[in-house]
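User: I'm new to structure prediction. If I give you an amino acid sequence, what do you actually give back? Let's try with this one:
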Amino acid sequence: MVVLYSFASQQKTMNTNLETNKEIVRRFNYEFVQGGDVNVFEEIVHPQFINRTVPPGAKGADKEGTLQFVQMMKQAFPDLKVEIHMQIAEGDLVTTYKTFHATHKGTFMGIEATNKMVSFRNIDIIRIKDEKAIEHWSVRDNMSLYQQLTQKV
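Assistant: Good question. You get back a string of structure tokens that encode the predicted 3D arrangement of the chain. For your 153 residues, that looks like this:
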């Protein structure tokens, strides 16, 4: 019996997996972070999720702490919109460069509501396991956000 190796077939499967991983991260951003759909969060975030770069104000690095932090952000910025500029997927990792746009309507980082429109950038790296987000790293532009919130007009 002769077995032929099909690089094209393997490449197609790998590309499909990468696109699936990117779609999971897009759903997290658009349907959960922007849309507030907790059911999507439960569907696509692994029970053993760990946030390696816990943001200020988060209650913990686990799945529950992440849920609480995003809900806190949605209270402070109820009209939060996510603009994904690019995504790069390799292996089980998806990197997303994005900008958040929102109006500051509630307390955030100890700052009372200012009703200011803000935009702040973020780069996330999410590791996917079994089609669920299991690990997270982030580089956030917290200084820009802080300056926008505290700048006198």
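You can read the tokens as a compact description of the fold. Here is one thing that stands out. Helices lie at 7-34, 38-44, 63-76, 142-150.
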